[in-house]
Amino acid sequence: MKLYELVGRDKSIGFSPFVWRVKMALAHKGLAYETVPLHFTEIKDAVAFADCKSVPVLVDGDNVVADSWEIICYLEEAYPDRPSVFSDHHAAKLFNFQIALPLLAPLFRTIVPDIFEVIHDMDKDYFRKSREARLGRTLEEIAEDYEEPLSIFEANLMPYSQFFKREQYMCGAGPGYQDYALYAMFLWARATSDKKLFEDDDPVADWINRMDQCCGGIGGAVKKIK
Amino acid sequence: MKLYELVGRDKSIGFSPFVWRVKMALAHKGLAYETVPLHFTEIKDAVAFADCKSVPVLVDGDNVVADSWEIICYLEEAYPDRPSVFSDHHAAKLFNFQIALPLLAPLFRTIVPDIFEVIHDMDKDYFRKSREARLGRTLEEIAEDYEEPLSIFEANLMPYSQFFKREQYMCGAGPGYQDYALYAMFLWARATSDKKLFEDDDPVADWINRMDQCCGGIGGAVKKIK
Lengths: 226, 226
Prior knowledge:
Two copies of one chain form a homodimer.
Chain A: E1 2-6, H1 17-29, E2 34-38, H2 40-46, E3 57-60, E4 63-66, H3 68-78, H4 89-118, H5 121-135, H6 139-144, H7 147-164, H8 177-192, H9 203-213
Parallel strand pairs in A: 1-2
Antiparallel strand pairs in A: 1-3, 3-4
C-alpha cells in the first residue's frame, strides 16, 4: 500500500491531522504501507490520478481511495479479518463533526502561523496567500491574537478532560476511531507548534501519553519539525 | 416501576431533561411505569429514601436507582431481553460530557427565566434564590441577555446540524441513547420556553420531527406548560 501524505521541510515528519487518522488506523490493523511525502504545492499534481486535491490518498493494489474517512471505511471492508477501529460506526461518523468545528477549527487558527514556520520554502507563498485569504487576516495578525482561538479550543476540550478523568479511551478498553481522530489533531500540533494546549495535570495529558504508546508508538515518535 | 420526576405548575408535564432521558429509554424498552410528579421544593424530602437530592429516581421492586445514567444502565442490566438503547456504551458515556457544557449549560442560561415562569408558585422563591446565586445575576438581568448564551448554544449545535444533513439518527437506523439524551434537552426547552433554538429548515428540526414520532410519540405530545 502507498499512502500519500503531507510533510514540511523535514520530509520524515508528516503532520496532516487527516493523514494521521489513517496512519493510526493502518497501525491498529497491522497493515504495512509506504508513504509518498509531499509538500503542499506538490499535492495537486501528485494526487490528480485519484480525482481529488488533498491528502491522504491510499493506493492499495488497484484500489485508489481519497479522504481519511473513506480510506478508513475502505480498510474496514477490505480487511475484515484485521481488528476493527470502529466500536460504533455511527458514533465515529458523528465524532468527525463533533471535533471539526469545535476543536480542529480553533486549533487551526491557533497554530497556523507556526505551521508556516515549518513548511518547505517552496510552499510558503502558496500557504500564506491561501490561509490569509481564508482567515481574512495576515499570518502576523493571527500570530498576535492566538489566545482567542486557543481559549475556544481549551473550552471545547473540557468535555474530554471530564471524560478522561475516569475513562482510559473513548472506544472502550483500547483505542479506536474516536481516539485516533482526536489524537491525530494533537500530533498535527505537536509536529508544528510549541504552544501549550493543556495543562500537564489535565486528564487529556494522561490519555495522550497512553496514545503515544499504542500502535507501536508511531505517534509518540513525532517531534516538532525543525 | 415508579419514576420520580419534576413538574411545573401543570403536574401532567414533566420537564427535567434528565428525567426525559429515562422516559425515552423506558419507552424504547417498552417498560411500563407510573410517575411521581414533584415540584422543586418537594424533591429533597420525597427522594431522601434514595439517598440523593434530585430526580430522576426509579423504584423497581426492591431496587432504588438515582441518576439518569445509572438508571438507564440499570435498565440495560435488569432487562437484557428488551431492546438496548446503547449502540456503544462508551460513546454514550462520552456523549453525556459532549453535550453537558457545550449545549445544556448555555441552554440553561437561555431558558432559565422562562422556567421560572412555568414552575409552581411554591417553588419560585427557592428557584430564584438558588439560580441567581449559581449564575451571579438576577433572573431579570439574565432574561435581557439571553442572546449571548443562545448564540453559544446555536454554535455548538452546528456539528449536529451537519451530521443530520445526511443521517437519520445518531445511533444508526433507529434512535438510541445519544438521540434520547439530546432530544430530552429539547423537550426541556419545549415545555418551558417559546424561544426559537434553530431555524425551521435546520436538519436538526427534521431529526426532532422523527424523534417526536418515535417511542409512541411521548415526546411529540409535550407542550409548553401554561
